[in-house]
Amino acid sequence: MTRQQHLNAYLARVRARRFRPGAHDCALFVSGWVEQMTGHDHAAAFRGRYTKLDAGQDLLAAAGFEDHVALVASILTETLPSMAQTGDLAVVDDRALGIVASERVFVLRPDGLGHVSRRQAQRAFTV
Predict the structure, then answer these.
(1) What is the rounded distance in angstroms from the CA atom of residue 34 to the CA atom of residue 52?
(2) Which residue, 3, 60, 88, 100, shows the most beta carbons closer than 10 Å to its own?
């Protein structure tokens, strides 16, 4: 299976899931993808332990991270957004994490999966 095929399968599996802090938010969305590709669940210590984003932020702070982007930056290698490949992670709107797919970045919206132009990415991380 190619990386694009793995990503298509992952997106199909999570497409209909609604945004729910602690269960399916942007950090857990990208963490699920990273786990699928690497076998490592970097969000295990956080998943299911909060139901509000502020509470998730408090858990991250207690673990020594400024926010979920700082956690990702501590795990993955940063690259230029213009160099990101399909399946890499991107930061859009300064806080939202998404998955790069060609010229789009898949992100979570309140009603499910959406996408934005990769030109909106301010940072990117190699998966």
Answers:
(1) 23
(2) 88
| Domain membership of residue 66 as a residue range | 3-126
Say how many Å lie between the first and final Cα of the chain, rounded.
16
- What pLDDT is stored for residue 67 in this prediction? 95
Which CATH number belongs to the domain containing residue 109 in this structure?
Answer: 3.90.1720.10
Q: What is the pTM of this model?
A: 0.94
* Measured distance CA(75)–CA(56) in Å, rounded: 18
Q: What is the rounded CA–CA span in Å between residue 2 and residue 59?
A: 35
Domain count, the chain: 1
Which among 77, 11, 15, 22 is positioned nearest to 44, based on CA atoms? 22
> Looking up tokens 């690497």, which residue turns up?
38
The first and second tokens of residue 65, run together, are: 């991270």
> Edge-to-edge strand order for the sheet containing 96-101?
77-79, 121-126, 89-92, 96-101, 104-109, 112-117
Q: Which helix (H) or strand (E) holds 53?
A: helix 53-62
> Mean pLDDT across the stretch 99-109?
95
Give the per-residue pLDDT at 51: 96
